[in-house]
Automatic annotation (TrEMBL):
One of its GO terms (cellular component) is extracellular region. GO terms for biological process: carbohydrate metabolic process; glycosaminoglycan catabolic process. Residues 37-190 form the Lyase N-terminal domain. GO terms for molecular function: carbohydrate binding; carbon-oxygen lyase activity, acting on polysaccharides. It holds the Pfam family Lyase_8. InterPro entries: Chondroitin_ABC_lyase (IPR039174), Chondroitin_lyas (IPR008929), Gal_mutarotase_sf_dom (IPR011013), Galactose-bd-like_sf (IPR008979), GH-type_carb-bd (IPR014718), Lyase_8-like_C (IPR011071), Lyase_8_C (IPR004103), Lyase_8_central_dom (IPR003159). Belongs to the polysaccharide lyase 8 family. Residues 901-961 form the Polysaccharide lyase family 8 C-terminal domain. This is Chondroitinase family polysaccharide lyase.
Length: 1045
């Protein structure tokens, strides 16, 4: 593999950026905090009814603060040009010949405010900040700095201010509360860019600025902290929640014992008795980490270095490390030193006010407080720590199970579950044994059981009935769902299990189902490439497996068994085959499982459809076949502009995935990013474009810059049978943004055993100069080692090119033992050669879109030519085959006893017959009362179904792939029927559940139901036909057993 580094291009970019940084506009200069010095006080500040001075009592960035001692209603005015200007078009972003305006960042005011003591009287809190010129007040806002320590004031001009801002504004005026007091001001920026998600709404406006209701959700902003005071308490409804369940009269011995069990499970270090001091090296390491924050005390004040987002990670991590260290040493002097460090960090965090945050950088803080609760209690600060961290982690939301705006919507933000579950559990455990502690532990169990871990509707965050986990309005198999679900099980489900606080059986069963579904769609370390939610490169290890171990230790959902053998068997199957796990021989969990006589679970087999992922998995032996799509409900990809050319990622990408290989740091599907041809993804039918045109182009600024492009086709999904077979269908249409809206295709994959039958019809595209291809395969190829077959001829020449317009059936085998049978006349081409890509995978980096790379590949495709109109294809895949087997298969396809037959392939339906299973599989793109194929006379609406003949009757499996979140046009459709890019959080159907749809099959013959599972109902059976009715929801498969009368 080779890479080239375009140093000249990088140097040019660096030079341009450097020169640009030297050119600052006048408005840019105002983004710099005011220099607080004597000249500012004497020349630019005027005060009435008060006094100002420079103070070193409360420092910010090591600089003095502006101390303002005010009388009721006193004023402080800072003179000088504000520099505000309205948002304007900075540039035009061109996408496929269309210009999109790129707006400048919104400008706003910001500062830090500090108090010596908290004020509780409303009249002592309200601070008015106004802006104007001359005698004219142009705009203003009110804020309420009431807490001890620092708070941050943010307000975007025109968004979070009243009045109308003006470019002529040349003063900012602070009007004091109606009670005398003192404020310390610092980091005053009169006008600077503000990221709109970094501020909160002004409570007096009662308007949530630019946020859509779904985005506000639980907080109104993604960056919430104790010190952001533009109305946090008033704007944040969770702070007003109160527990409505009655307090127990006393704490029982059973509850006290449960608390000890929960503590020991969540913090195993508590069970380890320290027998020796920490090493001198360890103490020096802790001291060095502590010294990074520069915390110092001066009398009753505490100061330190600025702690911004990046530094807060290390800050909270050190809080947890200090808590661990305190329990790991037997030396009282070391414990005293660790306690001093910890208390300094706690006090400084409280003064700053936004450490910890309810986000990824806040993990570890409350854990540390719990481990140091004895120290906090001895110092008289335990209650302060409990109250402070409850505010930081929005604890009071656990008191309300009525859902968003009381609509009983279920589910929870996966970010919150991941970052806060340990913290809210630790917060409760910090409390003394009391009725309040019992109540709150019951509340958290209830909230997780009935809200957070219940099925959420539509594309809202949470888990889904098909086993998907949603975040960012999409199934998150590799990212958020991959690490959130395990932490919830480890930090909450397992600690509470077997105690009086255990989660409900239903919630436990939902998580168990989710874990089994995850086991089905993963290898030991990876998930399919097409299942990635955020397009961020490739990774060595995609899939976690801790949830299986902790579900095993949590017992069965009904509580009858203390150990779940099935979950343990799954864990054993994954870990024992994890190529990267070097210490499995000494793993105590594995030893424990083996001591119970549990054997590894079998590799899952069968077919599963994942409607909420718009994907399907088909498994046999040790391999899996994966296919993924997108629809009007599930967008194709989330891309934040990282330069990965994954335009066609979910356009029907098919992957034949074999077991993991240690020499391969990604899923074993033939994929390799270096040199990959991104216009030819396996299984995909798409226009052939150069790589640069397959990259996402971001056309908007702000928090929701990510691109979420929906299709306008809701018919995506499939059906599976109880015998492990199934089908997946994708109605495909490209998006207007990239001028792909004239592209259409109907694609189906029928999956039976080791045979995959692939049909494509109605392929259309209007743009000339761009050909359309259907890619059969694209695999890494190793010259002098790999070979493939075209018919009975082995091909190992490198490089080579071959093309043919076939007149008769032809078969091939790629270099991964996957056979392809092409029965109809087709334009085929194949090349084995070195390929070049502008994207590269660099170990240690998620992706490198700026590095050119090369790789050797074998690529075969069906060519439909330019501007196809009603083009089609047919081919079949045989997994893990060989030349003899393929020759026999091809011969059998010429016989009267064919393995499969295509009975219909057009715009109305795709129908095939599979001989071995004696099944007919149907994809109905429209209703058809006169179908008359096989046992089916007609069907009343589009659907997918499989009819299998049995000795005594029929087994019918059916689903409606349309999730029916809404009817009619999508939110992104304009008056001229074109579509534009929309923020997915703004969809009006964001919280709409999948609506039931009724499908009726008219069957030849008279039948009666032989099962009582309620999946179907016979409406009539007589006169030689039967009307069978299914009520479908969530895209899931239904099954009915019928026997002839």
């Amino acid at each position: 593999m080779k890479r080239s580094y375009d140093l000249s291009q990088n140097l040019l970019i660096f030079t341009f950026c450097f020169l640009a940084s030297l050119v600052r506009s006048e408005a840019d200069q105002t983004s710099i905090p005011l220099a607080l010095d004597e000249s500012l006080l004497s020349e630019r500040i005027s005060v009435t009814d008060g006094d100002i001075s420079l103070s070193y009592r409360h420092l910010s960035d090591g600089a003095p603060s502006l101390r303002w001692d005010y009388e009721p209603g006193g004023t402080l005015v800072i003179h000088g040009r504000i520099g505000w200007k309205s948002q304007a078009v900075e540039k035009m972003v061109e996408v496929e010949g269309v210009d999109y305006p790129w707006l400048s960042e919104p400008l706003g005011f910001s500062m830090r405010v500090c108090r010596d003591d908290e004020v509780t009287e409303p009249d002592a809190q309200k601070l008015t900040v106004a802006f104007g010129s001359g005698d004219q007040r142009d705009c203003w806002f009110n804020c309420y700095p009431k807490r001890r320590g620092w708070s941050i004031v943010h307000a975007i001009y025109g968004w979070e201010t009243r009045g109308e801002p003006s470019t002529e504004m040349d003063w900012v005026k602070f009007t004091a509360p109606h009670v005398a007091g003192t404020l310390y001001l610092n980091d005053i920026i009169t006008c600077g860019p503000l990221f709109e998600a970094s501020t909160l709404p002004n409570p007096e406006r009662r308007v949530f600025g630019p946020y859509q209701p779904a985005r506000i959700g639980e907080v109104g902003s993604l960056l919430v902290s104790n010190r952001r005071i533009t109305g946090i308490e008033e704007a944040q409804p969770f702070f007003k929640n109160r527990a409505i369940t009655p307090l127990p009269q006393k704490v029982t011995e059973e509850e006290i014992e449960a608390f000890r069990t929960i503590e020991d499970r969540l913090f195993p270090i508590l069970k380890e008795k320290a027998t020796k001091p920490l090493s001198a090296e360890k103490m020096k390491e802790l001291e060095a980490e502590f010294n990074k924050f520069g915390i110092t005390r001066n009398g009753d004040t505490i100061n330190g270095n600025p702690i911004e987002y990046k530094e807060s990670y290390g800050y909270c991590k050190l809080m947890r490390a200090l808590g661990d260290a305190w329990h790991m040493t037997s030396d009282h002097n070391q414990q005293k030193q660790i306690s001093d460090w910890f208390l300094d960090m706690f006090d400084y965090a409280v003064k700053l006010g936004d450490i910890p945050s309810r986000w990824y950088n806040g993990r570890g803080f409350v854990d540390g407080c719990f481990l140091m609760r004895d120290v906090l209690k001895k110092n008289g600060q335990l209650e302060e720590a409990i109250t402070y961290t409850r505010q930081a982690y929005l604890f009071n939301q656990l008191y309300d199970d009525t859902g968003f705006n009381g609509t009983n919507v279920k589910g929870a933000d996966l970010d919150y579950l991941y970052t806060c579950t340990v913290s809210v559990m630790s917060n409760i455990l910090m409390m003394d044994e009391s009725p309040e502690k019992v109540r709150d532990m019951r509340e958290i169990s209830h909230f997780y059981s009935t809200v957070a871990l219940d099925y959420s509707p539509s594309i809202a965050d949470g888990i889904k009935p098909d086993g998907s986990a949603f975040h960012h309005n999409m199934a998150s198999a590799r990212g958020y769902g991959n690490y959130t679900i395990p932490i919830v099980i480890e930090a909450l489900v397992y600690p509470l299990s077997g105690t009086v606080f255990r989660i409900t059986e239903a919630a436990h069963e939902r998580l168990r189902k989710l874990a089994k579904q995850r086991f089905f769609y993963r290898t030991q370390n990876h998930i399919p490439l097409g299942w990635r939610n955020i397009t961020l490169g490739v990774h060595r290890k995609d899939a976690s497996y801790k949830e299986n171990l902790f579900l095993a230790k949590s017992g069965t959902p009904d509580g009858k068994k203390k150990y779940d053998d099935e979950m343990a068997a799954i864990y054993l199957r994954i870990v024992q085959n994890d190529l990267y796990y070097k210490d499995r021989a000494n793993d105590p969990a594995i030893k424990d499982i083996l001591s119970r006589g549990i054997k590894p679970a079998d590799i899952p087999q069968g077919t599963k459809i994942y409607p909420y992922t718009a994907a399907a998995i088909h498994r046999r032996s040790d391999w899996m076949f994966a296919v993924s799509g997108h629809s009007s409900y599930m967008f194709g990809r989330e891309c934040w502009g990282y330069g990965i050319p994954w335009m066609y990622l979910r356009w029907g990408l098919t992957e034949v995935i074999y077991p993991d290989r240690k020499d391969l740091e990604m899923v074993n599907s033939g994929f390799s990013p270096d040199g990959w041809d991104w216009a030819h993804l396996p299984g995909v039918t798409a226009p052939v474009r150069e790589e640069e045109r397959l990259k996402t182009v971001i056309t908007k600024r702000g928090h929701d810059i990510a691109e979420h492009l929906y299709s306008d086709q809701p018919f995506v999904g499939g059906v599976s049978t109880r015998h492990g077979n199934g089908l997946f269908v994708l109605k495909l249409r490209g998006h207007d943004k990239y001028k792909l809206d004239s592209f259409y295709a109907n694609k189906t994959w029928f999956m039976f055993g080791d045979l995959i039958i692939c049909l494509g019809t109605d392929i259309r595209y209007d743009i000339s100069g761009e050909s359309v291809d259907t890619t059969l395969f694209q695999n890494r190829f190793t010259p002098n080692k790999d070979s493939l077959w075209i018919g009975e001829k082995e091909v190992d020449t490198f490089p080579m090119k071959w093309s043919e317009e076939t007149k008769s059936p032809l078969w091939m085998i790629d270099n991964r033992a996957v056979g392809y049978y092409i029965p109809t006349p087709t334009n085929l081409s194949l090349h084995i050669d070195e390929q070049t890509s502008g994207y590269s995978f660099v170990p240690g980096r998620q992706d490198a879109p700026d590095l050119e790379s090369q790789g050797d590949f074998a690529l075969a495709k069906i060519e439909h030519g330019e501007t196809p109109d009603d083009a089609s294809y047919q081919y079949a895949m045989k997994i893990r085959t060989n030349p003899d087997a393929m020759a026999d298969f091809a011969a059998s396809m010429e016989s009267s006893h064919k393995p499969y037959k295509v009975l219909k392939a057009d715009s109305e339906a795709h129908v095939i017959h599979h001989d071995e299973s004696n099944s007919m599989a149907y994809v109905m793109f429209q209703r058809d009362y006169d179908l008359n194929i096989g046992h089916v006379i007609g069907v009343t609406k589009p659907c997918t179904f499989i009819v299998q003949e049995k000795d005594t009757g029929l087994e019918v499996s059916l689903s409606d792939p349309d999730l029916h979140f809404f009817y009619g046009f999508g939110w992104d459709v304009q008056l001229d029927r074109s579509r534009k890019q929309m923020v997915s959080y703004a969809e009006p159907w964001y919280y709409e559940p999948s609506k039931p749809s009724v499908v009726r099959l008219i069957l030849k013959g008279e039948y009666e139901l032989t099962d009582d599972i309620g999946s179907a109902e016979i409406l009539s059976s007589g006169n030689g036909q039967t009307v069978l009715e299914f009520v479908c929801v969530d895209g899931l498969s239904k099954v009915a057993q019928l026997q002839a009368k």
